[in-house]
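Each letter names a residue; the fold follows as tokens. Both lines appear below:
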Amino acid sequence: MEKVLIDLFIVPEAVKADFMRQAERVQQFISTLPGFIEGYIYIQSPETSESRYNVLTTAVWESEEAIENAKAALIRQYQTMGFNPQEALARLGVEKVRATYSRAPY
């Protein structure tokens, strides 16, 4: 059964462009990995004066094993780049919520 990894990011308007550049780089990389089926980025514009965007990313994988292999590959890629995603999110003031779902047609 396919697995869907969904990340919700709450992004301040002031850092949206920087965040989106990094998100697009990550999406380009993971789309080349074995087991990747499809992915999307959804952006919800702010509805309040807080000027924070909800950015939802989805990545559909063939299996849980494909997700685990992708996570390991992404960690290696980050290490090669000298990039720490948790530090970057904290520095930008971006909040993240992650969940994995099973997907089936209806």
The two ends are 13 Å apart (CA to CA). The mean pLDDT is 93. Residues 2-103 form a domain with the Alpha-Beta Plaits fold (CATH 3.30.70.100). Residues 64-81 form the longest helix (18 residues).
